[in-house]
Amino acid sequence: MTEPQFRSKGPELLVELSQHVADTVKNVTELDLQTAELVGNAVAKHMMSVWGGQNVYFPMGISWRASQRDLQIYEEFDGRNHSALAKKYNVSLQWIYKIVRTMRKDELQAKQQMQE
């Protein structure tokens, strides 16, 4: 079945969004394809109503992926495995120290804010 042709890229974007959401839902959950496609269509319609008419920029996610990596490093950190983590994540030993120091600081600030 051929994809419909549109005058602008907007409808194509919504069709692609719907398809990507359906694929992701199917891969991440146990839902069947038909239900995943319903979810994809619902998400596309919702985004259309929320952001319709706006120019939306999707960042490459480099800083988001880095923060996810840093959180993983901190969770795996046991106090003595700096070198192993540096090798595993292909970063310098100094970077591991910095990540641990930053995450500890953030954790302490979060605890202090909860106590206030």
Summarize the structure in words.
It comes from Pectobacterium parmentieri. InterPro entries: c-mor_Regulatory_Protein (IPR052411), Homeodomain-like_sf (IPR009057), Mor_transcription_activator (IPR014875). Keywords: DNA-binding. Residues 8-113 form the Mor transcription activator domain. With 116 residues, the protein is mostly helical. It is 73% helix and 0% strand. It is built from five helices and no strands. It has helices spanning 9-28, 33-51, 62-76, 82-89, 93-115. It starts with 8 loop residues before the first helix and ends with a helix. The mean pLDDT is 88.
In brief:
This protein is mainly alpha-helical. The N and C termini lie far apart (60 Å). It contains five helices and no strands.
CATH architecture of the largest domain: Orthogonal Bundle
Q: Could you state the CATH homologous superfamily of the largest domain?
A: Homeodomain-like
> What structural class do you assign from the helix and strand content?
mainly alpha
How are helices and strands ordered from N to C?
HHHHH
Report the biggest beta sheet as strand number plus sense, adding barrel if it closes: none
Q: How confident overall, as mean pLDDT?
A: 88
Strand content bin: under 5%
Q: Give the count of structural domains.
A: 2
Overall 3D form: elongated
User: How many helices does DSSP assign?
Assistant: 5
The percent range for helix content is over 70%
CATH topology of the largest domain: Arc Repressor Mutant, subunit A
CATH class of the largest domain: Mainly Alpha
Give the termini distance in whole angstroms. Answer: 60 Å
Q: Give the low-pLDDT segments.
A: none
